[in-house]
Amino acid sequence: MRTPLIAGNWKMYGSRERVGQLIADIRAQLDPNGRAELLVLPPFPYLGLVGSQLDGVPVDLGAQDVSAYSEGAYTGEVSAGMLADCGCSHVLVGHSERRTLHGESDELVAAKFIAAQAAGLKPVLCVGETLEERDQGQTEEVVQRQVGRVLQEAGIGAFSDAVLAYEPVWAIGTGRTASPVQAQAVHAVIRAQLAAEDATIAGQVRILYGGSVKPDNAAEILAREDIDGGLIGGASLQAESFMAIYRAANQVC
Ligand code: 13P
Questions:
Q1: Is 210 in the pocket of ligand 1 (CB under 6 A)?
Q2: Is 224:187 a contact under the CB 8 Å cutoff?
Q3: Which atom of ligand 1 lies closest to the CA of 236?
Q4: Least packed by Cβ within 10 Å: which of 41, 213, 215, 232?
Q5: Residue 181 C-beta-side C-alpha neighbours within 13 Å
Q6: At 26, which helix (H) or strand (E)?
C-alpha cells in the first residue's frame, strides 16, 4: 500500500509573517497517528525560515523549481545541491506554470529531474494536458510524451526515488477539477506506462493529483486506486483547508 502524500505548492505567495503563521498552524494540527505524509513547497527565500521551523517535525520541505546545472554563471538560478544544503528533500520539476509561462521543454524538465536526483533530492515530476489538448483527445498522448522523455533520459530505475503529479492545466487555479473518474483514468495510464518497463517500480511510485483540490472534493479524489495524494495550490495557503485535505487523506487512503 502506497503511503499518501499531501504536498502544498505555495507558488509565489507569502511573506515572512504569513509563512511563519502557516507553519505554526500546520504543526498544531499534525496527527501523530496519521498515515499521510506532508510536504510544503515555499518560495525560495522562505526555505531557510520554513526549514528551521520544521526542525524535528515530520513535514518535508521542497522547492518549486531547480536549475538543470550543478553550478556556474547562471544568474538567478538555484542548484539542486543548494536546495539539499538548505534542507530540502523534494523539488517540483515541470510544473505547468514553468512549462507554459517559462517555456520549459520536456528535455529541460528531464535534465532538471536528473540534476535533482544527482544531488539526492526526490523530484516531483508534474505532467498534464491543456484544455485544448483534452478537447482534441490528446490527453494520453501528451502525458505519455512528458513522462516518456524522463523515462528515456533517466531510466525506469530513477522512478523508484521520485514522485509523479498529474495536474491537468485546465484544472489549476480555475476551480474546475478533473472528476475522480477522469483523474483516475489518467493516473492508470501513467502507471501502465511505467509498468511496461518495471511493474514493481510502477506499483510503488506515488502519483499525486493536482488541480483545484479542496476540502470538499479531496476525499472522493483521494479514494481512487491510483491516486496517492494531492499537489495542492490555493488550498495549501490556509492551514485550515490544507490540513482538512490531510485529514481526508488519512481517512481514505
Ligand atoms: P490549485 O490547487 O490552486 O488549482 O493549484 C494546483 C497546482 O498547480 C499545484 O501545483
A1: yes
A2: yes
A3: 2
A4: 215
A5: 0
A6: helix 16-28
Cell of 43: 518560495
64 lines ligand 1 (CB under 6 A): no
Which residue in the block uniquely carries the three cell numbers 523534494? 90
Mutate to test the pocket of ligand 1, among 11, 39, 64, 163 (most ligand atoms within 8 A of CB): 11
Q: What CATH number is associated with residue 132?
A: 3.20.20.70
Residue 107 corresponds to which cell in the numbers above? 528535455
Under the banding of pLDDT at 50, 70 and 90, the label for residue 172 is confident
Average pLDDT over residues 86-97: 98
Evaluate whether 229 touches 7 at the Cβ level (below 8 Å): yes
Domain that holds residue 203: 5-252
Nearest to 37 by CA among 57, 20, 66, 53: 57
Residue 250's identity, in one-letter code, is: N
Which is nearest to 66 in space by CA: 46, 55, 80, 81?
80
pTM strictly above 0.85: yes
State the residue for C-alpha cell 477522469. Answer: 182
- The atom of ligand 1 lying closest to the CA of 175 is 4
Ligand 1 nearest-atom number relative to CA 11 = 10
Given a cut of 80, whether residue 234 has pLDDT beyond it is: yes
Domains held by the chain: number: 1
> Residue 248 and residue 152: Cα distance in Å, rounded?
35
Non-local (6+) Cβ contacts of 169 within 8 A are 96, 100, 128, 129, 130, 131
